Amino acid sequence: MEKFPDGQKQTQEREKKPVRVKTARGSVYTYLSDGRTQRYKEATGVLEEPMDILVFIPPWDVIGSEAKKRYPEIFSEVGGDAQFTQDLLQYVQGPEKTIRVGDAQGNVLSDMNNSGQLYLYFITRKDGKMHVDFTLPVSREPKIGYSTFDYRENRDEKNMTRPERHIGNKVVEIING
């Protein structure tokens, strides 16, 4: 294996990392130096506040057979990616439903400072308790055809934390730096 002077090797490794990701609807996610990302939403022309977490949801053709085996009561009738996405969106839009990013041990994360496999936990709130309906493994690295999921915690005027979650469109381009 060829060896590089330290500076050259570091530059090559840095160049392989994504600096921006574009989605099918024109959103552009830019990786910031502090580890967060920021989305420019083409449809509205708005540059949103930085997000604490950006992960990528595998498409149905990648995850479907395993999802049907693990959670037949939820996914047995899913016939394709559009229906899969609609099922997931219920957890962003529904008043008793939510999504959390966590690790394999079920620890909820609020940033990307975790080196292990990440999961989305799809949760229903019932009787004042939270019940995990299902989990899906997600990628921390962008992949063409995977959908974005971003998360941030905002503070309101009373200094209360307000989480914001968004399932985005499929990645169509990855720009490496």
What's this model, at a glance?
By secondary structure, the protein is α+β, with helices and mostly antiparallel strands. The protein is built from 4 helices and 10 strands; from the N terminus they run αβββββαααβββββ.
Describe this structure in words.
This protein is of the alpha+beta class. The chain has a domain at 54-168. It contains four helices and ten strands; from the N terminus they run H-E-E-E-E-E-H-H-H-E-E-E-E-E. The strands form two sheets. A seven-stranded antiparallel sheet has the order 4-3-2-1-10-9-5. The protein has a three-stranded antiparallel sheet with strand order 6-7-8, covered by helices on one side. Strand 3 (37-41) and strand 4 form a beta hairpin.
Cα gyration radius (Å): 18 Å
Strand order of the largest sheet: 4-3-2-1-10-9-5
Distance between the termini: 24 Å
So what's the overall shape? globular
Share in helix = 10-25%
Secondary structure class reads alpha+beta
Report the portion of residues in β strands: 35-45%
Largest sheet, if any?
7 strands, antiparallel
Output mean pLDDT. 88
